[in-house]
UniProtKB/TrEMBL annotation:
<keyword id="KW-0175">Coiled coil</keyword>
<keyword id="KW-0131">Cell cycle</keyword>
<keyword id="KW-0132">Cell division</keyword>
<dbReference type="InterPro" id="IPR007793">
    <property type="entry name" value="DivIVA_fam"/>
</dbReference>
<protein>
    <recommendedName>
        <fullName>Cell wall synthesis protein Wag31</fullName>
    </recommendedName>
</protein>
<keyword id="KW-0963">Cytoplasm</keyword>
<dbReference type="Pfam" id="PF05103">
    <property type="entry name" value="DivIVA"/>
</dbReference>
<dbReference type="InterPro" id="IPR019933">
    <property type="entry name" value="DivIVA_domain"/>
</dbReference>
């Protein structure tokens, strides 16, 4: 499964069918913008946690603490 990026969500296009009822394009755009903004925040948080975990792993190695021992 391919994970979506914020840009994937922002640039996706949804077909509008004029001959039958469908979703309000403005409402869909608003929701997609909210989803993309949420993905931005979560991606930044994940990156920060990964950097922090990497630093903590380095500290553990410096002190002779194996990563498996911290479970």
């Amino acid at each position: 499964m391919k994970l979506l990026t914020p840009n994937d969500v922002r640039t996706c296009e949804i077909s509008v069918h004029r001959l039958r009822e469908g979703y309000d394009p403005d409402e869909v755009d608003e929701i997609l913008d909210s989803v993309a903004d949420t993905l931005d925040v979560l991606a930044k948080r994940a990156s920060a946690f990964e950097k922090r975990a990497s630093r903590l792993e380095g500290i553990c190695r410096e002190h002779g603490i194996g990563i498996d021992e911290t479970k």
